[in-house]
Amino acid sequence: MMSKLRLLFDRFTLILIAVVTAATVLPAHGQGAVFFERLTAAAIALLFFLHGAKLSREAIIAGATHWRLHGVIFIWTFVIFPILGWVLRPVLLPLLGEPLYVGIVYLTVLPGTVQSAIAFTSIARGNVPAAVCAASASSIVGIVITPLLLQLFLGADTSALGGSSLLQAIGRISVQIFLPFVAGHLMRPVIGRWMDGHRKLVTSVDQSSILLVVYTAFSESVIGGLWQTVDSISLAWLVVACCGLLALVLVLNTWSARRMGFNRADEITIVFCGSKKSMATGVPMAGVLFSAGAIGPVLLPLMIFHQIQLMVCAVLAQHYLRAGQQQDSSGRRAAA
């Protein structure tokens, strides 16, 4: 029982809840808010520098050759996912209200995760090189596609861009995320071996950056009246909506991979890379794309969906692993 609870509620989740509580009770303001904003910007730059340094060119070459698989993952991440959010608008908008529904739209247009998608693909014995390539490419492409899709699905309302034009928003995201990523990748020949021996460092910086951004963003939103805008009933419906959205994507994703004739390893990669949304990319992007007053409700769907996807995918990865082990065992017995 305790192991199952640890699977569902890991240490990072509990810390994340504590950070949101701290931002509610003791929000940063004045010079404290300025300090946290600068610290957060530095942490995000370091995070994507390390992500770039971690990605080997061998992994890129090994995974990039599987164009059909990458095309399917791209379509799920940046086409079908956003369309589902848009199609569900008549149901979700009355239940959640405008601020949280904008958060759902933002969630659906985000790139996929990198670390957890690769980790779950590895546990389930999927196509890991392809997962590395697909997940990393998703984050890079999302720098441009996410703001474009956000404006497309929000219609003519450009207030979501926090007063910036679309090109300005893309430029700011590129400076904050893409340039550090490229710089890190260019430095890989120098620091790559050290990075391979300190993989936990990326995870620590990843989680610390998210916590800093969440605290800073929620502090601004709490001061702006976040919890007067979002009530407990809306939060409950938001959890239901995130569960339903993830379930719908996983079912359709798995069905489509099998219908298209992908083998088991590629199916696993499509399921884990095409159904997950990145908090590591989504949280700092939100700080660029949304105004301070809107960012809290926008991040709530992402935070809730992120935790649900981790819990569900952890169970799903173990299911794939056991099914694969049973197939291997049956094959050996048949051969004997």
Automatic annotation (TrEMBL):
Please give an example of a GO cellular component term from this record.
plasma membrane
Identify the InterPro entries for this entry.
Answer: Na+/solute_symporter_sf, Put_Na-Bile_cotransptr
Can the keyword Transmembrane helix be found in this entry's annotation? yes
**Keyword Amino-acid biosynthesis part of the UniProt annotation:** no
Keyword annotations from UniProtKB, A to Z: Membrane, Transmembrane, Transmembrane helix
Q: Per the record, a Pfam family?
A: SBF_like
Domain of life according to the entry? Bacteria
Q: Where are the transmembrane segments?
A: 40-57, 69-88, 100-120, 132-154, 166-187, 208-227, 233-255, 285-305
Q: Which PANTHER family match?
A: SODIUM_BILE ACID COTRANSPORTER 7, SOLUTE CARRIER FAMILY 10 MEMBER 7
Recorded protein name is: Sodium/bile acid symporter family
Organism expressing this protein natively: Castellaniella defragrans (strain DSM 12143 / CCUG 39792 / 65Phen) (Alcaligenes defragrans)
